[in-house]
Write a structure and sequence with these properties.
With 621 residues, this protein is of the alpha+beta class. 49% of the residues lie in helices and 16% in strands. The chain has four domains: 3-80, Glucose permease domain IIB (Gyrase A, domain 2, 2-Layer Sandwich); 101-282, no CATH class; 283-445, no CATH class; 468-620, Glucose Permease (Domain IIA), CATH 2.70.70. A hairpin with a 5-residue loop joins strand 12 and strand 13. The two termini are 37 Å apart. Keywords: Cell membrane, Kinase, Membrane, Phosphotransferase system, Sugar transport, Transferase, Transmembrane, Transmembrane helix, Transport.
Length: 621
């Protein structure tokens, strides 16, 4: 599927562009704020070719794309239109305070990551060149490179101001002006010299604090600006808006920011940084093991953005970070180790290829394709990566390994751990090597797939094994291989193992005793769970979601107990054909982690017709 069609499908399944109030992306995910989350058909989005996963996290809806996310986002932006970006409609539902904080921090920092990551990598390269004696800190080339590498961090309030203004939906240029106010040379110089502690303005004291490389003061300042602007703009007559509104907004906001907001934000940043530094000073090994091991879960939930302000505060005040960047580094290399082990151990060609490519991405600091496409999908390699990350994190915490610049936490970030006269770089190498090797070895030890019959349907003439479960056919018609389904999500086995039927009658019946666990709102698919715990998905036709329920009649309710032969759904075959849709209907066991041995009874080979009385699948326990 091309990027344009993918974007259209995603937007459509999210309830249309009128249901999207804001959109942006990170390294691997499309991120959306929605008007009404209930309009999202998350299962249909997961089934779209090119989508690796979808989830609600921290008040956002996230669609995991992988390395081509920027290309897909460009197509999404074109579909939504520029007006949508500037004047998004309001959200109906309020988020809780935790979700709101994570959503805000994520929305602010994600757009500016290219600038700070690029500059951070340059600082790492400079450290490497200096250590190798290829460049001297006293020559002009080093001075020029320093200007380029330091600029995004020194003037970070400007970048944050512009991004925060877009997030808070206020004027970007006034926001950048507020950043200019707190970064004005008078304040910077007085703060550096210590000659003047404060300036008096209307009887109030303005403390002289160096706000360069800080983020919390300007975030709070722009947040205040968004409210001041709305209030003033509401009461100023239209004739005077262009003159009076910016004057009053700038004067009021700048004064409040200089006297109250920015100093408060600065102190918050300092204490947050002290908290994390103190945590590692008191319980370094334990804190390192905990964060190194749990970092993938933190990344999946989007909570890693909560560490950004502390990381920048630490880099600004101490010149290094010991939490976010180091813990992400060991965690990412652990994911790489587990993924490469899957590439070696798996006998499935598609999984081997996917694991190899996503493993390379993980080495360079982009782990979400590896997590969602490989380790989390197979589960045990994910656990192995947690173990490896915990070991590496323990090494980093024990020896207080420091990152001296902000960079993407992958192998290219290693130069940022170089500090002459210390063993910091050596301990960093030991930590990431152990995290990689241990996760690799543990994954190789785990039996994460059926090693004799991995990801394949075994054709066998009957099955008399008493330790097995038989599943009757839920439909009548012609049996075909799942690989013939014109939807790669089913054909590639991403949903589960099974086969497909081209139905000859418009009835779906229960193939076993169990209960109804999932009913798709458009009625074209149903999920069942047998009494033994087998989860079966019956999907009527391909792209039949387009019918929006027309031609489908449900005979059961969600949670209802069913017996073999109970009618589940009645559907109109002629209507589906008239709409030009494919009738081929996948029938798959989705929880193959618990039931990996799905056997097709070969007495009914693919060209044959099958009815409700015959056994379709056998599941070995």
């Amino acid at each position: 599927m091309n990027k344009k069609d993918l974007a259209k499908r995603v937007i459509s399944e999210m309830g249309g562009k009128e249901n999207i109030s804001q959109s942006w992306h990170c390294i691997t995910r499309l991120r959306f704020n929605l008007v009404d989350a209930e309009k999202v058909n998350i299962e249909n989005i997961k089934a779209i070719e090119g989508v690796m996963g979808a989830q609600f996290q921290n008040g956002q809806f996230q669609v995991i794309i992988g390395n081509k996310v920027s290309e897909v986002f460009e197509a999404v932006s074109k579909e939504l239109g520029q007006e949508h970006e500037i004047n998004p409609i309001g959200e109906k539902k309020r988020k809780n305070i935790i979700d709101l904080i994570f959503d805000t921090i994520s929305g602010i920092f994600t757009p500016i990551l290219p600038a700070i990551v690029g500059a951070g990598l340059l600082k790492g390269v400079m450290a490497l060149l200096t250590a190798l004696k290829l460049i001297s800190e006293s020559n002009s080339e080093y001075a020029v490179l320093s200007m380029i590498a330091d600029a995004p961090f020194y003037f970070l309030p400007f970048l944050v101001a512009f991004s925060a203004a877009k997030k808070f939906k206020t004027n970007e240029f006034l926001a950048v002006t507020i950043a200019g106010v707190i970064m004005y040379p008078t304040i910077i110089n007085y703060a550096a010299s210590g000659e003047v502690a404060s300036l008096s303005f209307l009887g109030l004291s303005i403390p002289m604090i160096n706000y360069s490389a800080t983020v919390i003061p300007i975030i709070l300042g722009v947040w205040l600006l968004s409210y001041v602007y709305k209030v003033i703009d509401k009461f100023v007559p239209s004739l005077f808006k262009i003159i009076v509104t910016p004057l009053l907004v700038l004067l009021i906001t700048s004064t409040l920011v200089l006297i109250f907001i920015a100093p408060l934000g600065s102190y918050v940043g300092v204490y947050v940084e002290r908290f994390f530094s103190g945590l590692f000073n008191v319980a370094g090994p334990f804190a390192g093991m905990l964060l190194g091991g749990l970092m993938p879960l933190i990344v999946i939930t989007g909570m890693h953005y909560a560490f950004f302000p502390a990381a920048f505060a630490s880099l600004s005040s101490l010149g290094y970070d010991i939490v976010l960047l180091p813990m992400n580094l060991v965690s990412n290399l652990a994911q790489a180790g587990a993924t490469f082990a899957v590439a070696i151990k798996s006998k499935d060609k598609k999984m081997k290829s996917l694991a190899a490519s996503t493993g390379i991405s993980a080495v360079f600091g982009i782990t979400e394709p590896a997590i969602y496409g490989v380790t989390l999908k197979l589960k045990k390699p994910f656990y192995a990566a947690l173990i490896g990350g915990a070991v590496g994190g323990g090494i980093f915490g024990t020896f207080v390994v420091k990152a001296f610049s902000f960079s993407l936490p992958g192998i290219t970030a290693l130069p940022s751990y170089i500090q002459e006269g210390t063993n910091n770089f050596m301990f960093a190498l030991i930590g990431i090597t152990l995290s990689f090797v241990i996760s690799f070895l543990v994954t190789m030890m785990f039996k994460f797939e059926n090693e004799e019959k991995e990801n394949s349907l075994i054709l066998k003439e009957g099955n008399n094994d008493i330790d097995s479960i038989e599943i009757s056919s839920p439909m009548e018609g012609k049996v075909v291989s799942l690989s013939e389904v014109p939807d790669s999500t089913f054909a590639d086995g991403l949903v589960g193992k099974g086969l497909a039927i081209i139905p000859s009658s418009g009835i779906v019946k229960s193939p076993f005793k169990g209960r109804v666990t999932t009913i798709i709102p458009t009625k074209h698919a149903i999920g069942l769970t047998s009494n033994e715990g087998i989860e079966l998905l019956i999907h009527i036709g391909i792209d039949t979601v387009k019918l929006k329920g027309d031609g489908f009649t449900l005979k059961v309710d969600k949670g209802q107990e069913v017996n073999i032969g109970d009618e589940l759904i009645e559907f109109d075959i002629d209507l589906i054909k008239e709409q030009g849709l494919d009738l081929i209907s996948p029938i798959v066991v989705t929880n193959i982690d618990k039931f990996p041995n799905v056997i097709i009874n070969s007495s009914k080979t693919f060209p044959n017709y099958i009815d409700f009385t015959e056994k379709l699948l056998t599941i070995r326990k």
